[in-house]
Amino acid sequence: MPNHLVLIVMDSCRYDSFLRARTPNLDRLGATHRRFSYASWTAPSHSVLLMGIMPHASPAGTFASEVYKHEFGHWMRRLGVERMSFATFVPHLSLPKVLRELGYTTVGRVSLPVLNQHTAYSSYFDDYRLMDDHNDFAGMVEEATFPVERSMFYFFNLGETHYPYMLTGLPKVSGVHGVFKAQGRGDAGDDGEARAFFGQSEMARFHGQQARCVEYIDGLFGELLEKAPPNTYFVVTADHGELFGEDGFFGHGPIMHAKCFEVPYLEGPHPGSASSLPPM
Question: pTM of the full predicted structure?
Answer without folding.
Answer: 0.91
